[in-house]
Amino acid sequence: MSLTTKRALAKSLKKLLSKRGLDKITVKDIVEDCGVNRQTFYYHFHDIYDLTEWIIQDDAENILSAELDYSDWKVGIRSVIMYIQQNRNLILNAYNSVSHEVVADYLKKLLRPYILQIVQREAKDLDRPPQEEDVDFLADMYTLMAAGIVMEWIGRRMEMQGTEERLKKLFAATDGSFCFMLNNLEKRRNT
Description:
Layout lengths: L1 H16 L9 H8 L3 H7 L3 H18 L7 H14 L1 H11 L1 H24 L8 H24 L7 H12 L2 H14 L1
């Protein structure tokens, strides 16, 4: 029942966000739309910002638990961008109200499995298997880079102009770089 109530409150907030900004929505608005009382809201969440953060985390967990194709990190980044576009009001309000860190953590959580998978796949092509810590480091580095690019896009209020071109540049710049960097890390270790 608790998760059902949380998701009902989340649905109400998302619905209200399609009509007005987070700063114009009250707990009273949410509970009236949802059909519960204020005590129920405060039983689950401290405030609207807490609910907003929970929605982002819950959505991230739902996306990650879905049957995803991790064979191509480009697909993962495009999936994240599509989700963000579909939830534009929620993401922009979270970005501007809650904390940039909440949104950045959400992006990193979504992107890292894709990127780790591609680094691991590329590592299989090397003559010697790389150290696990090098694979993790590279996955973290590329995750931060991809999340940073998406955060910048959100900061520009998700302007679509130039977004596809920036993605193409990111993909072109990283093509072949996973093996190159893993080899460099291995060489450095051996010197």
